[in-house]
Specification:
By secondary structure, this protein is an alpha+beta fold. The chain has two domains: 276 residues, no CATH class; 161 residues, no CATH class. It is built from 21 helices and 14 strands. The chain has a five-stranded mixed beta sheet with strand order 11-9-12-14-13. The chain has a three-stranded antiparallel beta sheet with strand order 4-6-7, with no helix packed on it. Strands 1-3 form a two-stranded antiparallel ribbon. A hairpin with a 3-residue loop joins β13 and β14. α2 runs antiparallel to α6, α9 runs antiparallel to α10 and α10 packs across α15. It is globular and about 80 Å long.
Length: 542
Amino acid sequence: MTTAPIPSWGRLDAGEVTGMLCSGRLQLGIAYLILLVAAALPLTLTTYLPLDDYHNHLARMHILAQDGADPVLNQFYRTNWQVVPNLAMDLLVPWLAQLMPLEDAARLFTGLIFVLITTGTVALYAALHRELSWWPLLAFLFLYNRVLLFGHLNYLAGVGLFLWALAAWIYLRERSPLLRLAVFSVLSTGLFFAHLYALGFYAIAVAGYELAEAVRRPGGMRELMRQSPAALGQFLIPAYLFLFQSPTAGDAETFSYFGLWWHFWNKVRATHQILLSYHVWFDRLTFVVLAGALVMALALRWVEIDRRMRLPLILLLLVFLALPQALLGALLVDFRLPAGVVFVLIASIRPRPGGVPFARAVAAALAALFLVRMGLVTERWHAFDQVYDRYLEAIAGLPPGSRFVTASAQRPDPHEALAPTLMYVNALAVIEKSAFEPMVFANPRQQPIVVTEDYRLLASSYPWEWPAAPLEKLAPGLADGGGDSDRPEGLLFEYDFLLLLYPRDASNPAPALLEQLAVTPRFHLYRIRRSAAAGRHPATAG
């Protein structure tokens, strides 16, 4: 793979500029733009991206963008800005939504994540190896991973910032300690507000890098002491904010290990999530082939991992093995780390000059694999955009200010479970109809919105399960043919509309209590008859 030395920051004359444009840098830039357009194509073909948590996040963005301007929505939710280390999307998308439609702002934010991660990988490679190369463009192949499809956008934005911050730390390492302390205090604080996990992984990488440098160089301990004030001092502001200002610190003792066997099996699953999308066997085969090719390339010394990055990668691996499945009130914590570390690994690897045989053929095969993956994702997203259109059509004529609740008739079958989940599709009613939905993320320790006092009890009463509370938990007996009771009971009857996911058939489980508004293979929408709600929750009795 061809490389080019990074030019000095001195003044370039016209001949040097012309030489640069005629060199491989221009080709590299064009290739980057082509790959970026291909990666962004699925984002442009859907109205609402089919990411698992995305509709829930989008509802929160809508509430923040309204900022009290919608009196109907105000009865359900209000903004509640605090020092929360999970705000990348919350700070940018509502502002962008003042300039463009909300769904466009959220798509643009997702595209910016792609730019941050890919350019961050290129920047980290350049800082480590002091050259530009085609190699870090491999990052595009891993953009569509399971963490993205789960909809963990704030974390992925933090990954992009983490890559840039680590690249800057390495590049500016020999500059004045005071300058670096000032610069990296700002960057670390920005990482804190983007996502706390990204900040933690950045801290581990910096610690590993500095320890590796101390071991590698003569007089390394003196060098480590010289670097320590900036290396440690940059985290003083984030540490203060987390420990003394952030409500998230109240969840510090909340962590969960789901048993020893499940813990280690989860690590195996999390590792191949870096490529997993919707076509499991194709994605798993791709992972095995790429992992095998990397091991062979390292063994044959076609490529090499930068010595300074071996310890950071080992430390990140050990942290990954030790991480619980739930931490600080968030789930799938260990699933997230590989989706960030893979980009650090790519940047840390340098193809040896002339060492990769058939380099052009390998690059062409990887590009073809990337395009195939983009085609498969685009096909699935286009299909699910039609599912969301059916939902939007179903709620189009419903009154604003209604109360929506989601239930599941059954767990989705394994094939359906690989499709984008419908768990939070009811959150679109918050956007379209200023509605109330109890599953909208409004934890004051994690999000900058809260449910109003009048509806807090109703929201907290919802029994969370995946992909939604079973219908029998919301209305005991209803799913088993007990739907003709004159005095129905259950949380269901505190709401106006029911979205029933993964129905067993097209039948109405309780015609006397539920009016069927829409029937599709994946969901039914019902109006809950007013006469059935005689014993309404005090918060909704009006």
